[in-house]
User: What shape does this take?
Amino acid sequence: MSKVLPPRRVCLRKSSASGVFSDLAASDTTVGPRPWCEERGLTLTTIRPFDVATYIETLQQTHSAPDVKQQLAAVRMLFDWLITGQVVPFNPASAVRGPKHVVKTGVTPVLDGKEWRKLIDAIPTDTVRDLRDRALIATLTYSFARITAALRMKVEDLRSQGAGWQLRLHEKGGKDHAMPCHHALAEALRAYIDAAGIAKDRKGCLFRTSRGHTATALSDKPMTQPDAWRMIRRRAVAAGIHAPIGNHTFRATGITAYLGNGGALEHAQEMAAHESPRTTKLYDRTKERLTQAEVERIRL
Assistant: This one.
């Protein structure tokens, strides 16, 4: 059954396209949807595919292809929502095509094996916060987990499976993804959980913030993405790694290491919970390393 918006809200949405597009135009007051529609006197019911196509062409003059494609996707989703609410009869953006943009290699910084080991070895094992940081980095690397999935983990999401362990990751879109636990990751997680004393708190979050500055006790609050990013940057500087690595670096590092050691692309896709192998291939930097190795053959 179709969702019907409250009558008052429908009237507001029908009155002007500028009101609906205000959020999309929040970062641009000159060529965003709101002023663009206002200048042409367009309302939601009068916007045609031609108008959307003209707007997209205008954006391409000042914005990059990825930005334009993202803007077009937002407009499409907006009109899909308005159709569900019976505000407009059709989606004028559905037939509009954005600029072509092909990406064959990702831009996320990737660590090689020596750099990754250097980072881990630079983190001591003196406090529970140290063990937490080692466990989080290992989780991101060995499970190919997105940072959001790792930080959503509960203590109960580390489960025994036969002679080993299994991780349950809560990925985007509400999907649960089970991943066998690498032995090195299992050791890091068990050391952290035992030191933190959270093994019996099965429903509690796994990666928690630390209390105060002593790093000897954890709170009940989960770490956030900014918390993880600051931790990674701090640990990288301490290890003498100056590359601009972040939360996503370790997912890419793990996938690259797996493929570089003879792993199959289709298995990497499944382990990373990607819908398409093309997405997984973006994380593969083995060709970059081969190229560097060949260049180093030049000896004078």
Observations:
- The first helix runs from residue 7 to 15.
- The mean pLDDT is 82.
- The domain at 113-294 is CATH 1.10.443.10 (hpI Integrase; Chain A).
